[in-house]
Amino acid sequence: MRNRAASKPGEEAFISGGTANVATTAAIVAPKGRAKSRPVTVSLTDNYLNQITTHLQQAAAEGEVSLTRTDVVKAGLLALAELPPEKVMKLLRQTKKD
Fold this sequence. Notes:
This protein has helices spanning 11-15, 46-61, 69-81, 85-97. By secondary structure, the chain is an all-alpha fold.
């Protein structure tokens, strides 16, 4: 094996070896667009899981094969947003009975 320690540059060479000029480097800005998703865990009964699967199967039959369970949940949230608050509360109370 070759001893590489002799060929390593020193600490000073490492520190002063950077090529970016802080004064002229533009700040990196995150691209605007979709918000970053966070993984979450949701507990659902088999009945709800079967309903989600049915919606995915119906979508696949219509050519939408790239949809996921997350897409079905998001669609449900969008549908809830269209309802008046009293109907949303009625549905939320109904889920507690299941």
